[in-house]
Amino acid sequence: MTQIFDAHSHCFTPIGLDDGYLEQRLQQIQYHIRLGGMGLRRRHDHSVLENPAHILCAGDGISWLTEVDFRIGTFGRVEFTHHGEDYYLHLVPPHSHDLSATPEYITAEMDSAGVSRAVLQHDGIYGRLDDYLAECVARHPDRFVALAQVEEWRGGQPDQLHRVRHQIQDLGHSGLYFSTSGFFFVDFRFGINDSELDPLWELVGELGVPVHWYAAGLRLPALETYLVEVSEFAEWARRHPDIPSVLTHGLDNLRKGIDRPDRFTVPREILDYLQHPNSYLELMLHKMVWDHEFPPYHPEIPKLVETLVSNVGSERLVWGSDMPSCNEVVTYSQSLVLFQTQCPFLTRKQRAGILGENLARLYPPL
What we know:
2 domains
């Protein structure tokens, strides 16, 4: 029986916990939601706030962050106040009253959906979870793989190199999570291929671990920025051919180009990235077409998968759920539907690869 291995899950302590980095986390979340996501709403009538970007951040970087009393609420919400009106967005589903996701909860969801293992991604918006994720893995070594975190805008500095080495060698993390949203803290002054980060990539190569990318610069125009970032990942892969990398939130162009006539195409930049033999693409397409009534049955989605399989093969495609956030769109079990019962062109071997075996090559079971 094929073991299902989720490339994208999260465990985290209450996001509003004051751990010494709360202000930094609030700043990053405020920027992270600036494009509206699945709906910023006015509290008193729950109407959607149109074009929130400049309300939350007047430009691309921390220098333009606006004062809106941004704060962590309850039942999955983050909140802010603008011109006397209160607004909110569900950063995580409403069932999380304190905005946390414990390993006991996530493993219960995994058991219900038939998922054997999961990669715990380590995005800064959820907290500085170095020790917490290590505890999750220690308690469930056969279920979880944890990724290390770094302050991306300071990734090449000695304290961050020490931190990454400690997470990998001492705490048992198995890869590095790297979000370009971190460059927000330096107004996107440089990127992943600049010399400031060369020491980090040298260390990652020495440690022999993969990198999981998130193209999350969220600058405007959003789609064009996303494709530029994917091209930068392809250039990085060319420079570092021996380091495996996984592009998380794959085909995020579906969300960023939601009104474009060419929405349901695979961008050339994605295909270029996948030309590098150590590059993988995480597919959580249920989140990318959140606007559809039931995303796993969107008629255009299998065509995208077929394009990827035809052009680069299925061996470097991996399924991810984004638990617990995926519950805002579909249940955990439903997030598997596309690759379990749809895409009739996939062979049994290809389905098994996408649902776990491809990812297991990067993270073999114990």
